[in-house]
Structure formats: structure tokens, C-alpha cells
Amino acid sequence: MNQEFTMAQSSKRVAIIGGGVAGSTVALFLAKQGVDVTLFDKNKSLVSGPPICHLHAGGNLYREISQQQCLDLLKQSIDFVRFFPSSVNVRPTVIAVPKVDDGEPFALLPRLKVLREAYRDLINEDADNNVLGSPDDYFYEYDYEQLKALSQRDCPKVPSSLDEWLIPFAKYTDLEQLKFPIYVVQEYGLSLFRVASSVQLWTEQLDNLHVRTGVVVDDIEPLESHYNVALDNGEVGTFDFVINACGFRTGSIDDKLEIKRQRLVEFKAAYVTKWESHQEEKWPEVIFHGKRGTPQGMAQLTPYPGGYFQLHGMTKEITLFDKGLVGSTTKTSQPELPQSLINKIDKGWPLDVQVARSKSAIRHISQFVPDFSTAEPAGKPLYGAQQIPGNEASLRTADVSFEGERYARLEIVKASSALIAAKKIMSKWFVQQPQTMVHTYSLDPARVQEVAMNIAKERGYPESLAIAY
């Protein structure tokens, strides 16, 4: 095995319950530093949780969050790219404010300037943080006249400049519906399937990372110096530390341990569509800001190769759901979603519901991109529930919390927060500061994509969602 890993100063055993993006990322991080980790997940493969499509390198999708949350997301996103370099789809994101929205574009500018300088500072601290291009290019603004001029140009198959990336947007968006300027930000895309592939390939290289898929943790018994973890097949394992990485079901483990914790859980979905007549174009990601939960909620158009687009619409007919945001109670740390939503998670979607919501998403985007009305649903939705610690539904930066000396729970809202959680765990339980990982083994991007395409196919999604854009 071609590797050299910096070893932690401990032979303690860690159990991680839940192999979503949070649990898998923390497992990899700890294992790469020599910690003995066992990762349990009830699914057949790892990283099969809620949809991931966007690298929130600055949080510009969320006008309502604080500047500090945006700065945290920027730093965490850079760390995530460095850890999973083959997972990124390198293309810009357009941030547009429709005329029907109460917001003003220039309100975004002060934050963008702060983020640009913060990115510059991060590169000055460590040149390897330069993963989003030059800080000078972090964002640009375009006015109406610039976009009208771009709309007269032909769409290139391979954009070689920011102007060229914007040609499809300028050509097919109804610019009369927008306020100006629009902003173009270096917030890239993320491939859920290439993250899953990277995790799978890395686990094959680490002898001290033991992956147990297709098993359910039935019970956890806390003892004075360790935990007994019992599986549904009758096995019992002994571990020095337990990390609860159960995503929206994190409260169920807290309940087993009789630990009270306040949290929200929200069910959301995104929809896969194909725009057949535009499959040769390379689009940027596009965000049309809007007020969450109203008919004019934010619309998000995320491009993939071959004319596939993933759609979000922050309305209750598209991405959000009636009674889809629930909280814990004094009796249980596990918020209870309606059974209809649990059935979607555990058993899948009725075809008529997925088609109806996909068509609603297409109509929502078509308000601003009229020709998108010719797009068609292209498969089952990407969906799942996420936890939000506390009671603030708009919170987007959270990582890990600890109970006692041997129990931690991952509470990430965005995938990029998983690494800061891993570093905090490493620092608290094993060493004062996480050591630098030194290894000679790296993943081949072509192999990552090949495995990712197989994962997408196995899960019933178009292979295009796994292909680098």
C-alpha cells in the first residue's frame, strides 16, 4: 500500500454512527492521521444523504445569514476543496435579484468585498488555499448593457472567459425581469457522487478505517471508560469514543443515551431535469433571489453535462414541504417529520408526486428563463432531511458538539462544515492541534469519476450528475 500517514498519539478506538458526508469525512480525516475508526451505516453505500450540489464559498445564496456565517462558509469550503479536490465542478455562479423581489442588488456588494479580502488573507496565510482562482476575480458585476451585448454572441462549447460563461445566461434569461447589476461569484459546484466515490476509494487504502454498511446500531451502552455498541445482527463492539453522525436522525442516538438536545429537522428536495435543446451549452449556476416559502421563493439552476439541470425552488410546491420543518420537544431530542416524508426517505417517491414537483420546478425557473419551459423531468429527485442545531432555521454554519469526554455529535448543515468538525474532534480527543497529513497516495480524478458514474447509476440517477463539468 503506497502511503505514509502521520500517526496520532493514541491507539483508542472510535465508532462513527452514520456514513453520510459528515460521518464519512470525519472518518477519513481521523483515519488518515492514524486513529482506529469503525464507520457504521445502514445503507448499502456511503454518502447517500441529502443532495449536495453547491460549494458555498461565501454563502452568497443566503442573504439572511450573518456576515460571520459567510466568512465561516468561505474558509470551510476552501478546506473541503483541498480535502476532496476531485469533487468540484469549476464554474461561476450568477446572483440575480428579480424586480418582483424586495431586495436590492447593491445590498450584496459590501459583503462580497469583505469576502474577497478574506479570501486574499487566506491565500496569504497559505498559498494552497488558492482553490477559487485569484482573489481579484472572486466576483464581478455586470449591468444590463453588458449582458445585452453578450446575448448577441454565440454560445461556446468550452467557455474560456467569464464573459463567455455568461453568454447562455444573457441570451436566454428575460433580462427585463431583473434588477441590475447582477453579480458573478466564484462559488463552484459540488458533485455528490464524486464525493461518494472519493470516500469509497480512500477507504480502500486505509487499513485502520473499518467500514460496516448495511447494519443498524440498535443500542449504545455508556460505561465508565468506553461504550458498548450493539448492532441489529447481534454483534457488540467496544469503543473508547462514539461520534453520532446520524444526520437528521441524530436525536435518536441522543435519546438512547438520555441526552437532551434542541434541534430542528428540515426535509428538502431538488429535481433532476433535462433541457434537450440546450445540451451543448455550458451554463453557470444561476440564483434568482426570492423570499423563502412564498410563491416567489429563490430559484436555483444548477448545470451538469449533457443538458441536465438540478433545480431548487424555495416554495412549498417545489423544494420545501408542508410540515417539513419540525423541532425537538421536551420529551425527545429527535424531531418527528410527518410519516409521508419519512416514507419518501425510506421507501422512495410516488411517480406522480415526483413528476408534478419536477414540473413545478421547471415552471418556476421558466419565469426567468422562458425557453426552459421545454425542459422535462429526468428522473427521481435528490432529497433528504437535514438537522439544524438550536432553533434558528436560517443557521447554515454548525459543526460538532460534545457531551462529556467521549461522545460527540456532528451537526453540520452544509457539507463543507464537516472538516472543521473533524479537526475539533482530533484536537479535543487526541492531540492539541491536528497534525499535517503526509501521504504519497492520491486519487486519480479519472478513476474518481468512473466510480462516481457507477454510484449514480446504481442509485438510479443520470451518470451526467457524476461527470466533471
Describe this structure in words.
- The chain is α+β, with helices and mostly antiparallel strands.
- It is built from eleven helices and 21 strands.
- The strands form four sheets. Strands 4, 5, 6, 13, 14, 15, 16, 17, 18 and 19 form a ten-stranded mixed sheet that branches. Strands 8-2-1-12-21-20 form a six-stranded mixed sheet, sandwiched between helices.
- Strand 10 and strand 11 form a beta hairpin.
- Helix 1 packs across helix 10, helix 2 packs across helix 3 and helix 6 crosses helix 11.
- The N terminus is likely disordered.
CATH homology superfamily name of the domain at 11-55 and 191-261 and 390-462:
FAD/NAD(P)-binding domain
Per DSSP E runs of 2 or more residues, the count of β-strands stands at: 21
Share in helix: 25-40%
What is the distance, rounded to the nearest whole angstrom, between the alpha carbons of the first and last residues? 31 Å
Oligomer: single chain
Helix-strand category: alpha+beta
In short:
The protein is α+β, with helices and mostly antiparallel strands and 469 residues long. The chain has eleven helices and 21 strands. Helix content is 29%, strand content 22%.
